[in-house]
């Protein structure tokens, strides 16, 4: 089973974009995942293929029309499509490594990229869109957010990253931020590598890494730290 991504966008030329290079790009070429774009404008109204209109109730900006978007969704994703239908949206559930992992274990995703002030609420309900946010800031469109989500998912797909992606110590995988890394040269601008890392004592290395991961999480992410220290495993 190959992960299938379908993107609905007004800017199909933004895909695969950066996902056409490096790990994700090679995986795409190998056929480890597929990417398909649907140009929302093709489902627009009338000769001018209109996709947006002014907000009901008045306010500046434009809103993506429910009927237009629904036609595009129905063309990209049949009713019995097993893939989740996502809408990139600052109001959505925050994208987390856990959610990324769930997606990577599934058959793919249908991803709607919003533009303007957003999309008509009725299409979110009518097509069961799950709103997903990549953080508390406003982008000009959902395309970059979709690229971020797919980058995070694709690197977890079987065969894409070899052994390093499943690393249990990677930030968030065990509820902690990752420990610091060092490599040669042993001495750089007067800075040394913590001696424990070159001691050859694997147990001591593991304990040091664990302590550093906990310290960094406590200092930088009190939110993660309180969840971690209250965990019941
Ligand atoms: N008026 C909206 C923002 C619209 S931004 C509001 O205040 O909530 C235009 C589009 O960019 C959105 O429809 C969404 O698809 C995308 N977008 C903006 N910020 C995002 C974020 N943090 N995460 C995911 N998508 C985002």
UniProtKB/TrEMBL annotation:
Cellular component, GO annotation: cytosol
Biological process according to GO: tRNA N1-guanine methylation
EC number of the protein: 2.1.1.228
Enzyme class: transferase
Annotated residues for binding of S-adenosyl-L-methionine: 114, 134-139
TM segment ranges: none
SUPFAM superfamilies named in the record: alpha/beta knot (SSF75217)
The entry's keywords: Cytoplasm, Methyltransferase, S-adenosyl-L-methionine, Transferase, tRNA processing
A GO term for molecular function: tRNA (guanine(37)-N1)-methyltransferase activity
Classification via InterPro entries: Alpha/beta_knot_MTases, tRNA_m1G_MeTrfase_C_sf, tRNA_m1G_MeTrfase_TrmD, tRNA_m1G_MTases_N, tRNA_MeTrfase_TRMD/TRM10
Pfam families on file: tRNA_m1G_MT
UniProt cross-references to CDD domains, sorted A to Z: TrmD-like
Catalytic function, reaction form: guanosine(37) in tRNA + S-adenosyl-L-methionine = N(1)-methylguanosine(37) in tRNA + S-adenosyl-L-homocysteine + H(+)
Ranges where the tRNA methyltransferase TRMD/TRM10-type domain occurs: 4-226
Subcellular location: Cytoplasm
Subunit comment: Homodimer.
Family: Belongs to the RNA methyltransferase TrmD family.
HAMAP family in the cross-refs: TrmD
Function: Specifically methylates guanosine-37 in various tRNAs.
Listed name of the protein: tRNA (guanine-N(1)-)-methyltransferase
Organism this protein belongs to: Aureimonas ureilytica
């Amino acid at each position: 089973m190959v992960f299938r991504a379908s993107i609905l966008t007004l800017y199909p030329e933004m895909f695969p974009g950066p996902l056409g290079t490096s790990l994700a790009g090679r995986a795409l070429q190998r056929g480890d995942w597929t990417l398909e774009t649907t140009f929302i404008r093709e489902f627009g109204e009338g000769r001018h293929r209109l996709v947006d209109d002014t907000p009901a109730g008045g306010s500046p900006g434009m809103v993506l029309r429910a009927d237009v978007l629904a036609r595009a969704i129905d063309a990209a994703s049949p009713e019995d499509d097993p893939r989740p239908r996502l809408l990139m949206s600052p109001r959505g559930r925050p994208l987390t490594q856990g959610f990324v992992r769930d997606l990577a274990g599934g058959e793919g995703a249908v991803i709607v990229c919003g533009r303007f002030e957003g999309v008509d609420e009725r299409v979110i309900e009518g097509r069961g869109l799950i709103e997903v946010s990549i953080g508390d800031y406003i982008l000009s469109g959902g395309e970059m957010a979709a690229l971020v989500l797919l980058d995070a998912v694709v690197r977890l797909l079987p065969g894409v990253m070899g052994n390093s992606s499943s690393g249990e110590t990677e930030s968030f995988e065990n509820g902690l931020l990752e420990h610091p890394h060092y490599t040669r040269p042993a001495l750089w601008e007067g800075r040394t590598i913590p001696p424990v890392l070159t001691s050859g004592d694997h147990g001591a290395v593991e304990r040091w890494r664990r302590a550093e991961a906990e310290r960094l999480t406590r200092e930088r992410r009190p939110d993660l730290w309180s969840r971690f220290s209250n965990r019941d495993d």
